Amino acid sequence: MEAGESNSDSARRVISKDSSWCSQFRNASNPWMARYIYALIFLVSNLLAWAARDYGRGALTEMKRLKGCNGGKDCLDAEGVLRVSLGCFIFYIIMFLSTARTSKQNNVRDTWHSGWWSVKIALWVVTTVIPFLLPSEFIQIYGEVAHFGAGVFLLIQLISIISFITWLDECCESEKYPASCQIHVMLFATTAYVVCLVGIILMYIWYAPKPSCLLNIFFITWTLVLLQLMTSVSLHPKVDARILTPGLMGLYVVFLCWCAIRSEPAGENCIRKSDSANKTDWLSIISFVVGILAIVIATFSTGIDSKCFQIRKNETPPAEDEGDDDVRVPYGYGFFHFVFATGAMYFAMLLIGWNSHHPMRKLTIDVGWTSTWVRIVNEWLAVCVYLWKLIAPIIWNSRHTGSS
């Protein structure tokens, strides 16, 4: 009898736990878990945009029923990507406007951000369908605006990456275990510089095999110059930014240069194996999947890093005996959704090569001369922002000293 009661109590606890979880899913879930659901929605939107671009013609008969599609032809290829992107953008802008400046948990806006998933999924479906009812002229206007929004996303991501590198350097240089940290810093910095030099050498071999490849030679050589410039400024006695940060920034800059050259259209004589690039093989599929996941991961990681944009940081930790109603939110909800909204514009630009009139091959991302120059300008901007973060305190202190 006691065993039967024990089993019954256990079953009731399981049912109670399940019902509690379902209640949280409907109403107030964990804000940390909510991030992954938003990222999943973003991933599905990416896949829908890709399907509209590469396989939209298979759904032509269904699209004929939508008034904004003009018989289906205006919902295919690049315009189909822009329509899906617009729907994703509208969804996250609504979330941004409804959750901005949320500071405390367990209030209405916190509950809306972390729960009510059935309502928000229905909202996402509606916002995804609405752009397919709009005229083509409106979508083209959105495509022009999306260039600016994607640029904002790249700038936010850049500042977030530089802040992370600075934070990592400060952690390694902290007073805890200074001796072992110095060894790790030197090891990481040396590895970073070796990888940078190896990457530059390989880019010369792969993407500048002939003296006539002047543009690629310029890109790679200028990247080497920028790497040397960052190192020299960082190690200057007045700056004293140590050796780890320029090494990590060098990795990021070399990576951007590689992405820029890889974005050049297939068939260029300065890119080896360009003939095989015209064929869709397993390597193309893997590259495409990795590219899609990279977009989602980059947007996700940037969205939770709102602290790098705070001008004034609260140094006083919250009291231990604060009530549940006074618990601060773990990250900026409004900033999180704003990053995803600009990320919706960014993935649209990647899928159409930053040019709505440029045809894209299947299973390709960010290919075209426009994409190449966007990457290169992003690389140069990254170096400028990094150097400004090093020099700005010195300029500010000198002006402050001179005025006093």
TrEMBL record:
> What InterPro entries does this protein's entry cite?
TDE1/TMS (IPR005016)
> Per the record, what is one GO cellular component?
membrane
Q: What is its main location?
A: membrane
Which chain regions cross the lipid bilayer? 36-55, 76-95, 115-134, 146-168, 183-206, 213-231, 243-261, 282-304, 335-355, 376-396
Arranged from A to Z, the UniProt key words for this protein are: Membrane, Transmembrane, Transmembrane helix
Localization per Swiss-Prot or TrEMBL = Membrane
Q: Tell me which family the UniProt entry assigns to this protein.
A: Belongs to the TDE1 family.
Q: What is this protein called?
A: Serine incorporator
Q: What organism is this sequence from?
A: Flemingia macrophylla
